[in-house]
Amino acid sequence: MAQVRTASARGGGHDCDVLVVGGGIVGLSTAYAITRAAPGTRVTVLEKEPGPARHQTGRNSGVIHSGVYYRPGSLKARYAVRGAAEMVKFCAEYGIPHAVTGKLIVATERAELPRLHALVQRARENGIPVRELGAAQIPEHEPEVRGLAAIHVGTTGVCDYVAVARQLAHASGAEIRYGAEVRHVDRRPGLGVAVRTRSGDVIRARVMVNCAGLHCDEIARLTGDDPGMRIVPFRGEYYELARPELVRGLVYPVPDPAFPFLGVHLTRGIDGGVHIGPNAVPALAREGYGWGVVRPRELGGTLAWPGSWRIARRHWRYGAGELRRSLSKTAFTTAVRRLLPAVTEDDLAAAPAGVRAQAVLADGTLVDDFLIREAAHTVHVLNAPSPAATASLPIGREVGRRALAMLEEAVRP
Q: What is the pLDDT of residues 158-182, one digit of tens each?
């Protein structure tokens, strides 16, 4: 990487070598990876919010996923398994609150038993040790949880991802500009990329990395690239358990393999509280954290995307159930009682929601893996929902590797 460092010293009319758009955990991990791999590389991060990790990173369950769910050989499987171990090590190194708690995945109906067994096989293919439990063994781990069978995954944990993001920002040595919303991108072959922010500032870089999460497809189009997908936002709604003593650790249902969502689960966080959720309902804005948040332009873009209608036609029964649980606390409680019979409506207090940035293809396919694409002077991260926080360190290295390769090519005599 000597060429990269020399190029940084020359400057050449650029404000930085690599410009990262997005100050969530993936963008900050990318900045961290670049400066560690090529010291002296000038990295600037633009984040439209006043601080880091304000959206997907700071609005999830805080789970360090083991990688048990993901297709063997996929980026999700490889990066989650590797990333979980690295995340625990990172948290320990920097004194960030975390715990390796293990989790149960519980089958509550006979129809779920084959899917539970398939998860055991998938875990083994992904190199993850799991233990199969009968109904009588479940209370040894979770006395209040009931089911027909379960698997125990010992490598799952929890952490404070906002603290991780802040540490990545600090340790990267990158220039972080908050309140810097990207409004215009001018890319010219052989010259690089110039970005204008909402305030009118212009930042020139040799390479741009798009880690804009909920807005990544919009940034790709601003750059002049066709991302071939659209972000369709799904809101995940959570409740907090008023009696956290009912749950010791993490408890999940058996997921439906047709969807990238894991279902309503129980998570004891690092603060000792227990969150229940999320469900998955269409959001009426990319940052639509409640039914009252409607942005007509963004909603119109979702409705104009043919993939949105194809999802609706294909999965309307599943969606109707999620919608019912969103609008009815009674229905949500009933779903939770399948795992935790002792819970009542009075035990559930509304908690902040999150929005998942889900990439959807024009044919209605929900993109199931992380999606990273390259274009001239640009690397686009176009699908990085859960388990991206868990996998953020290896994702950052991969995106950083691509950006540095482009940078080296850009400065080659």
A: 999 999 999 999 999 999 999 999 9
Q: Decide if 133 contacts 113 (C-beta within 8 A).
A: no
Cα–Cα distance between 307 and 200 in angstroms, integer? 35
Query: What span, in angstroms and rounded, lies between the C-alpha atoms of 170 and 173?
Result: 6
User: How many CB atoms lie under 10 A from the CB of residue 169?
Assistant: 24
Cβ atoms within 10 Å of 147's Cβ, excluding its own: 24
- Which secondary-structure segment (H or E) carries 163? helix 161-172
Exposure class string for 351-389: b at 16+ Cβ within 10 A, else e: bebbbbbbbbbeebebbebbbbbebbbbbbbbbbbbbbb
Which pTM was predicted? Answer: 0.94
18-52-292 Cα angle (round to 5):
120
d(CA 109, CA 114): 10
Q: What is the pLDDT of residues 259-315, one digit of tens each?
A: 667 788 999 999 999 999 998 999 999 999 999 999 999 999 999 999 999 999 988
